[in-house]
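Tokenise the fold.
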Amino acid sequence: MNLNQPPGDKPTLSDERLTSLYRGVLAGERRSLARSITLVESTRRGDRERAIELIDALLPHTGDATRLAISGTPGVGKSTFIETVGLAACRQGRRVAVLSVDPSSARTGGSILGDKTRMPELTRRDDAFIRPSPSGGVLGGVGQRTREALLICEAAGFDLVIVETVGVGQSETTAADLTDLFLLLLAPGGGDDLQGIKRGIMELADIVAINKADGALVDLARHTVADHRAALHLVRPKYPNMETEVVACSALTGDGIEELLQLIDARARALADSGHRAALRQEQAVTALHADLLYELRARLLRDPDVADRLGELELAVRQGHRSPGSAAAEVLDRSSGQQTSRTIG
């Protein structure tokens, strides 16, 4: 593919299968969309090269969607909430894509990938697309290729792309590097949440939604909204004159969901009109560049035969306390660059 071609020109891809995927994605074909995401998530070297080519071709057709990250505390009902929000957006005539990330097992590397079963109504709609993906052990609550999957969904014509993260944690902030808006979902009873949530994630939140504001929990939800509004006065806003909004809603009854969608749209418009969105996405692209550099450098190191032959010995030396991790890492880097090292296993 010629990377210097004008954005308006049709790209020349290296094979017919890529061309078919490219055309299928732009036509909004679900099979092409799913296959393209599978391609970008593949760890095979040949697939990675083809995935990069496809993303570069699709890039001029991206950028029009609202990108929304949703994170929440355990038991808050994220999947039900996302389905309710997605269905409401579809009823407004919008096309909704949900990229949900399931944690990968540290022992087996597997994931349950059960989000489609937790969003049955949204799954059946033609104007919605749900893609569960494993985190692959990547920190930050998202998968290694979530950003590229997001771009594919935009190129396919989805105008609201929701990234559902693994859960709330110290490294959850990576999700904010992929999206325009960060929504933090909490349950009524703000005391425990305020104690357990890191200040950093509160600083990143554009909207805090108190879910389960129904039945006997309505009054408690109102108090929780007040508590979080008071707490957020101590947090510096992400943007000048754009304070974090705190609202109550119920995914079960639908109360407050339409108003929440209006708030999301209003905040997205304000970001676009002020120029903050353009600046944010530019910085996110650079962040993605550096993340890919680290990921690919590690992958290339592990593919180096000289490194691979020595790595097992170094791991054993570190495990037995004969070498420090820093010393072993320095030797790996020296070997990769072809330098000789005087370091030996003690």
